[in-house]
Amino acid sequence: MNFQLPYNSKAYLDLLHLILKTVAQSKDNLQIVYSVLQANLDKLDEFLAHIMQAWALSTLPQAEPEVARGIAEIIVSFCILLRQFPLGDKASHLEIIITGHEIASNVFTRREFPHDWGIAQNNLGNAYLYRIHGDHAENLEMAIAYFRRALQVRTREAFPKQWAITQNNLGEAYRNRILGDPAENLEVAIAAFQSALQVFTLEEFPLDWATAQNNLGNAYRNRILGNLEENLAQAIQCFQHALQVFTRETAPQDWAMVQNNLGNAYLYGVREHYTQDLPKAIRCYEQALIVYTEEDFPLGWALTYNNLGIAYLCNSEGNLTENLERAIYCFQQALRIRTPEASLKDWAMTQNNLGAAYRDLGKVDEAIHCFGQVLEVYQPGDFPVECLTAGRNLGNLAFRANRWQEAIAGYSPAIDAVEQSRSWANSDKRRQEILSAAINVYAKMVQACINTNQSDLALEYVERSKARNLVELLAARDLYPRGNVPQTVIEELDRLRREIVTEQRRIEMRSGVGEIANLETLTALAAFQESRTYLNQLQQELDELIRRDIQPYDPTFSLTQRVEPVTFEQMRNLLPNSQTALIEWYIAEEVFLAFIVAPHSQTPFVWQSSTQDYQALMAWISTYLTTYYDNKQQWQSTLNEQLQQLATILHLDYLLSVIPSDCSQLILIPHRFLHLFPLHALPVGGGRSLLPSGTQLSDTLYLLDKFPSGVRYAPSCQLLQLTQSWNRINFSHLFGVQNPTLDLTYSDVEMAIIRQAFDPHAEILVKAEARKEAIGNQRLQAAHCVHFACHGIFDLESPLRSALVLAGVDLKALELERCLTLGEIFGLNLSQCRLVALSACETGLTDPTSLSDEYIGLPSGFLYAGSPSVVSSLWTISDISTAFLVAKFYQNLQQGSSVAVALNQAQRWLRDATGDELQQWMEEQQLPLAPTLKISLARRFRQNRQPFQSPFYWAAFCAVGQ
After folding, report:
1. Residue 513 above 60 pLDDT?
2. Helix, strand, or coil here: 541?
3. The pairing of beta strand 869-873 with beta strand 835-839
4. Measured between alpha carbons, how far is 683 from 763 in angstroms, rounded to an integer?
5. Which DSSP letter does residue 55 get?
6. Cα dihedral sign for 699, 704, 707, 710?
7. Which residues pair with 958 in a beta bridge?
8. 881-906 burial by CB neighbour count: b if 16+ within 10 A, else e?
9. Given 1, 99, 355, 698, which is the most exposed site by the fewest CB atoms within 10 A?
């Protein structure tokens, strides 16, 4: 808390003595106390709280216990009176109140005075719930903590009414909570209100019952889970229940408040009933305004006019212009009270609504002015949701008006707000949802930057929308404290980080937040949260490790540091030499873009498709995936033709013409669906759009043929930046898994050749040995290369359930508990590993439905586990061709080639090799083949001049990372 010390501190101390004396002698006469407070408004500030705390610390420990308790009771009474005092600065009053209840909490200890201690905890919770100073999210967390502490003594059995009061307060804290999952927060709030209503009945506690019903109605109105129509019906019923007690005659102010809330329930109703519900909303607001007059209840009057304006703004019935003009009138009325001086946040909210009305009325300049003013108040770090709304409003309006700089001015803080909200979310799933919901803001920002010739800025925003969860995980994993921290502490830090990520993946895989919708009581919700006990325990262990063993060496160490976005200059510096170029694609709303980063370019070259190209790409993707999953034989036979079509749609030949002719290495960064396709195997050359009739496949030039130093992939530039910093020079120790399901005949051949390359440092689990329990970090953390020759599963509907199939698994049942799932791969320790090779089907597939382009697939797990390079496959691969390809790949690696070059060379070799050449190679390698298998292969090689020339055999594998 920052404030200037007043010149005369004694005046504050004298005032404190006067207030406490007056409260003690007033015998509950409010006016006597209030007259003293009103006469000293200038001193009811944070410094009075400071003086009161210092005075209590010096006075109460010296006083007799009974005297100290008496003083504490007076301080509590003062805090309660100050909470109700209508004049002065509310923010300062709450700081005084918090200090007073903290003093009481120290006097009335839990052990000696549990009831009074519980009251103090509940009061502190209320003060933090409505606190104005400080970080709003942190204040709400403090409120929740205090309410939960109060409930430790305010049990239903011992103090039923007090228990219900605190449950109601806890519900309000969770209903307004910023951190955590919003859906889960609202479910906890609903359960808390329902618990309160078990005690607060209409007959015994009518006012408390009505208050809890009103709060429960607000929670149901905002509920995310469940059926929207049912939630709103429940909210309306709750508000109508509250109105049974809060009547206009007996409780006019509460009646008006509930009328306003009921109007909100109708206002945000289901679209199908909107024409019937909107007039009901307007009627409710008009009813509220009978009581809420500007003179008597200015804040309620302004709030209701604001809501009435929203109702007219949304009203599509009747004369639209008149409705919008009424909306503008209502917002202008509200702004008479909602001034920047009175309440900056409320002013900004109504100002944003006024901007929306001007926008819909076609008054662009006025609307842009309103939205711009709002963004001066709604800063991303303080009000991320509101900032996103206002920034998107400004950006979209300016975008439609071709006012690109103003569009950028709106989208920039909106994106900052999205990223702030993501940092507060407590799960990868929620972070992904937040980014996906705002992905159109990123897309429009990229387009606005391109339209202002800022292609470097456009590419930076493309990167900010890609694979953020994995980027942040990797960045946090590589974050280590400064100073001479003992190695044992560093090892424990690594272990806890790995286990926490693994447990988070396990929870996300097995229990989605949707399950919470079926939990009807706080007890049931507590049981649900108890299932996360182990994760909480791990997090507490990590926090304690940092506090106890790390911060004494590095006081500023934290695992929540912001990951700064990658700049264009940093992207260009990722190119390892002057002969490397990078192509990054971005699929927007109606077009797709390709950015080319060349070694000496000051800005990236950007190419933008036409709308027709975009539609062609979407149609091609649909056809490709449908054919792949429904008719594998047709997909295989038409693969080369399909890849030619994709090359044409992407205008690949033109893009290559932009790249300097001396570039010999290419880095590809796909986007969304493009991760699923072998871009390195796209046909190129001569501007041809179709293969000439009768052309042999082996005569076709493919993308990897143009770049002899390799074509490799990365999920994003920032991920590439992270993995390139991992320097792994050793490559002598192998850990492998070989044919655990006993049905991959050629994997035995494959592993025999690989074993030779690493002998004598090769540890391979063969067939039945390759059980899940045998694959542990003790074995893996010493490996320089990890190779899986087994089946792989990619779960398109739930990518976290993707897995490698191990021994003991029934291939028909696929028991995941016996497989190595993606969630478990995140917990592996590959700190010495240079390469993970997944010689299995579909191990390179990622979630194509992710709007935020989260790179969710087996490669992401191995990247996080520590391997800077992963080789994986994009489709169900051929057993025999894979064995040959992988064997050649490892031979190339042993000769010193990089992963990408070794793989590309092996792919070209397999594609171009004749049957005779393959036969000779087999004999030279002395492959351990059964006699019948040798005869079968010899026959196949004689019948086919180039047995593996189709991309189906050689193009499935991709090198991701270094």
Report:
1. no
2. helix
3. parallel
4. 40
5. H
6. negative
7. 872
8. bbbbbbbbbbbbbeeebbbbbbbbbb
9. 1
Maximum Cα–Cα distance for the chain, whole Å? 110
Amino acid 171 reads G
228-253 pLDDT tens trace:
889 999 999 999 999 999 999 999 99
Q: How far apart are CA 607 and CA 486, in angstroms?
A: 52
* pLDDT digit string, tens, across residues 726-760: 888 889 999 999 999 888 878 888 888 899 889 88
Quick one: tokens of 558? 């934290």
In terms of C-beta distances under 8 Å and separation of at least 24 residues, what long-range contacts does 20-25 make, across chains too?
20/71, 20/74, 20/75, 20/78, 23/74, 23/77, 23/78, 23/81, 24/74
Give me the pLDDT at residue 3, please. Answer: 42
Q: How far is CA 654 from the centre of its chain?
A: 37
**What does the CA dihedral 910, 911, 917, 920 come to, rounded to 10 degrees?**
20
pLDDT band for position 435 (50/70/90)? Answer: confident
Instruction: Answer yes or no: are the C-beta atoms of 374 and 392 closer than 8 Å.
Output: no
What's residue 272's pLDDT? 64
Distance set, CA 908 to CA 352, 665, 708 (Å) = 60, 15, 10
Packing angle of the helix pair 160-175, 182-199 (nearest 10 deg): 160
Among residues 53, 46, 45, 88, the alpha carbon closest in space to that of 72 is found at 53
751 neighbors 735 (Cβ within 8 angstroms): no
Rounded Cα gap, residues 702 and 920, in angstroms:
26
Are β-strands 592-597 and 580-587 bridged in parallel, bridged antiparallel, or unpaired?
Answer: antiparallel
Residue 445's nearest CA partner among 482, 408, 481, 477 is 408
Q: Which letter, b or e, does each residue of 726-738 get, where b requires 16 or more Cβ atoms within 10 Å of its Cβ?
A: bebeebebbbbbb
Q: What does the alpha-carbon distance between residue 724 and residue 577 come to, in Å, rounded to a whole number?
A: 13
DSSP 419: H
pLDDT of residue 533: 61
Q: 3-class DSSP state for residue 181?
A: coil
Q: 517 falls in which pLDDT band (50, 70, 90)?
A: very low
Write down the pLDDT at residue 688.
33
**Separation CA 76–CA 505 (nearest Å):** 47
The mean of the pLDDT values for the chain is 87
Amino acid of residue 91: A
What pLDDT digit, counting tens, does each position of 862-874 carry? 988 889 999 999 9
Residues 6+ apart with CB under 8 A from 352: 370, 371, 374, 378, 386, 389, 390, 393
